[in-house]
Structures are given as C-alpha cells and as structure tokens.
TrEMBL record:
The protein's name: Cytochrome c oxidase subunit 4
Domain of life: Eukaryota
GO annotation, biological process: mitochondrial electron transport, cytochrome c to oxygen
Subcellular location: Mitochondrion inner membrane
GO CC terms in record: mitochondrial inner membrane; respiratory chain complex IV
Subunit and interaction comment: Component of the cytochrome c oxidase (complex IV, CIV), a multisubunit enzyme composed of 14 subunits.
Keyword Glycosyltransferase applies: no
Amino acid sequence: MLTMRCRLLNPVSNGFLLLARRSEILQAHVPKATIYNKSRIGNREVVGFGFNGDYSYIDRTDFPFPAIRFKKSTPDVLALREKERGDWRKLSIEEKKSLYRISFCQTFAEMNAPDGELGGIIGWSLFFISISLWVHALIVSTYDSAPTSFSPEARIAQYLRQEGINNQPISGNYKPPGVDEWLKANKAQDMEE
C-alpha cells in the first residue's frame, strides 16, 4: 500500500505531487504499536520514531525525541492534555511544568548536571594504583637484589655471545652501555700480554 502511494507521489512517473496524502505518508514512518510492543509500554502514547525505532524512553542530549511519553495516560493526564489544546495563556505555570514532565523525565539542565560518577572513577583508579604499589613493595622486600644477569658484566657477556654466534645479523643486537669501554680495556690488556 505504501509503495503504491509512493508511486503516486513520485513526480517523475506521474508528473504531479499529491499533497492530500502527505499526512498519511508521514504517519507511515511512525512505527505502529504491535501487540508485543504495546504490552511493554502499557498505555503510554507513541509520539514518534524515537532513536532507533523501538518503543523505549531514554533521556539523551544528542537525540532528545523519545518514541513514547514518559508518563502513562491517566485520566488526569488526559484532561490536562485536552486543556493543552486550547490557549496556552490560560494554563498556569504548574500545568505547563506538569505537561513537560508528562512527556519528559529530565530537563537538559538535569541531564547535563554532574552525577558524581567522576568521584567513583577517581576512587577506583586510586585503589588500583595503591594495590600495584603494595605489590611492588612486596616484590622489592622479597627479593634482595636483581638477578645476576642484570649486572653490567653479565649484559656485556650476553652481548658478546650473541655477536659471536651471529645473532640478529640484519638488524643487529642491542648494545648495552659500557661495551665499547670494556672492549677497549680488553684490547689494551691483550696488547700488554
């Protein structure tokens, strides 16, 4: 049915634009309340497509148009909505505020207000930093010194062994600090002998 209407509205195929059916076409984009969705939202009014086409309410600053109203349709709400159709100057400030709260849960100021989440993030970050500092202190107190392979002499010996077996011939090995001085000192000792 919708494709037939769209064919009728196509100005290229028929050469005219039928404006009388415009409201029906716009209503076709609003999702219909199916039995499953209607059972989920109760008697709340569907007012638009929403963020992703689901019948859900969520306060978002980047997309402030939920698919359904926030509050359910009670007789008081229906009476106020009927009064809304008249002159807005006759509505009191409290009625205007309640009309807003029927459709929306929060204002933009309430959505953008700080909610204390930063305190929790900082707290958990400091907790994990303290745990890591305690683990570091435990490791430092448990082991008296670094392994013997961390000493400068052992690192130089490792480097010379890797050079002797031609390890990493293209990119080369990491040369630890002090190798050049050690090689010069050994050459001087070999020349003296």
